[in-house]
Amino acid sequence: MSTRLGRGLESLISTGKESTDRNTGIATVKIETIKPNPYQPRTTFDQEKLNELADSLAESGMIQPIIVTKNANSEYELIAGERRLEAAKIAGFNEVPVIVRCVSPREQLQFALIENIQRENLNPIEEAKAYLQLQEQFDLTHQDIAKFMGKDRVTVTNTVRLLKLNQKVQGYIETGKISSGHGRALLQLSDENQIDYAELIIKKNVSVREAEKKIKKMLLKDDTKPTQQQQNQERIDYLKMLQEKLNKKLALPVKVEESKKGGTVSIRYKNDEELKSLLNELLQE
Taking each helix axis from N to C terminus, what angle separates 82-90 and 47-60, rounded to the nearest 10 degrees? Predict the structure, then answer.
């Protein structure tokens, strides 16, 4: 039965441009037959690191196959492994090992997103654009995106908000001249002021915390004191940020709640092992 299935799959994915290892299911295909992933979120590469990877591939070969799919025209489209594919081109490879998968456009984007984010290869603006694409093209909420990306909903929302920044300021974030934290602080300013203050941050190497304080003072001087509703929302966002940091730090569900007379921080654990880990984290000196 497995032999018949194998032959059936081979007849579906073989076009004469590939040779498939029957034991591993890994095919070898010509590089020029692989089209870019149309849903690839990354737009920039670190050329130095790419050259280093190319040298490594030239020395040791490509051990890990890239993942491709086939589109309606029976053309190969990349799903994951873009850096390896680009490095293989630099190294002069004619063929690369691939695994052929049948996936939907949404899964193509999801694969590319997960690969890049897990390896920290996406800059914050690329990540924000990918989340926005998931939201608009596949009708997903920020909560949906957060769930399958393994992130907090607030993190996804704050990342997407970066796209409201002036294009020049977004460029500074893409090139690493300022951080996403700086970008979130700059969102309070007009487009023109965003550019001016971003350039000041770069020139004087202003930290995120300093930028937040100075921008707040600047807004107060301009007699643009935030409304009570804005202040309440800022407080809610601040508490959510603290909650998110505690979640990551303790690796446990944490809830931060505030009332008129203080507040509570609650931490949930499932078993003695998680309790011991929590106590070790809290009581270490």
Answer: 70
- CATH code 3.90.1530.30 for 2-103: yes
Print the SS3 string covering 194-235.
Answer: HHHHHHHHHHHCCCHHHHHHHHHHHHHHCCCCCCHHHHHHHH
Q: Helix, strand, or coil here: 162?
A: helix
Beta bridge partners of 264: 257
Count CA atoms closer than 13 A to 215's CA, side-chain side: 26
pLDDT reading at 13 higher than 60: no
| Secondary element (H or E) of residue 94 | none
Cα distance between residue 146 and residue 157, in whole Å: 9
> What is the SS3 assignment for 67?
strand
State pLDDT tens for residues 94-135.
888 888 887 777 777 777 666 666 555 678 998 898 888 888
Within 8 A by CB and 6+ apart from 246, the residues are: 254, 256, 265, 267
Q: Catalogue the active-site residues.
A: 82
All residues at 6 or more sequence positions from 14 whose CB lies less than 8 Å from its CB, including other chains: 20
Question: With 90 as the cut, is the pLDDT of residue 2 above it?
Answer: no
Domain boundaries, the chain: 2-103
Is residue 140 a contact partner of residue 129, using CB atoms and an 8 Å limit? Answer: no
Q: Tell me the whole-structure pTM to 2 decimals.
A: 0.52
Q: Contact 135/142 with Cβ under 8 angstroms?
A: yes
Provide the 8-state DSSP code for 181: H
Instruction: For residues 38 and 32, give the distance between their C-alpha atoms in angstroms, rounded to a whole number.
Output: 16
Average pLDDT over residues 17-34: 70
